[in-house]
Amino acid sequence: MPTLFDQVSSDIRTAMKAHDKVRLETLRNIKKVFLEAKTAPGANDTLEDDAALKILQKLAKQGEESADTYSKAGRQELADAELAQVAVIKEYLPKPLTEEEIEAQIKDIIAQTGVSDMKGMGQVMGLATKQMAGKADGKLISAIVRKLLA
């Protein structure tokens, strides 16, 4: 199975052939960040998919924040450009979990750990964020954990 790095490299060629400027620019930016991570000290010239996913999540979040800032400043054309790039980035991320799925997983974690009050929230949060990394927003996980432990 190809790594995310290989997939992005391959998709760059496809975007070039299709003359898809937004996709091409976005993929080149992703590859640039991937290469920086690959050549960082201690990376041993490799980029594992879990690290690549974290990078993609960060890029998507930054793009959404930039789009929000542009919208508030009345620059909708810039916001739309950012959101178009975020859409390309999100194609490489795993499908996010629904609130019901997150709640079900957290209930399982609470049952496994035997935590029954807010004192054990840190333990539940640690396991939940590790288990749902890349598939759920940390703020949402935290809100659901609080609700279930309250």
Provide the β-strand percentage band.
under 5%
Number of helices: 7
**Main sheet attributes: strand count, strand direction, barrel closure:** none
Described by the principal axes of the CA atoms, the overall outline is globular
Number of strands: 0
Quick check: average pLDDT? Answer: 87
Distance between the termini: 43 Å
**Low-confidence blocks of residues:** none
Q: What's the topology here?
A:
Elements: H1 4-18, H2 21-38, H3 49-72, H4 76-90, H5 99-113, H6 121-131, H7 138-149
Helix pairs in contact: 1-2, 2-4, 3-4, 5-6, 5-7, 6-7
Structural notes for this entry:
- By secondary structure, the protein is mainly alpha-helical.
- It has helices spanning 4-18, 21-38, 49-72, 76-90, 99-113, 121-131, 138-149.
- 19% of the residues are buried.
Could you name the key traits of this structure?
single chain, 150 residues, mainly alpha, 7 helices, 73% helix, 0% strand
Report a brief summary of the structure.
With 150 residues, the chain is mostly helical. The protein has seven helices and no strands. α3 runs antiparallel to α4 and α6 runs antiparallel to α7.
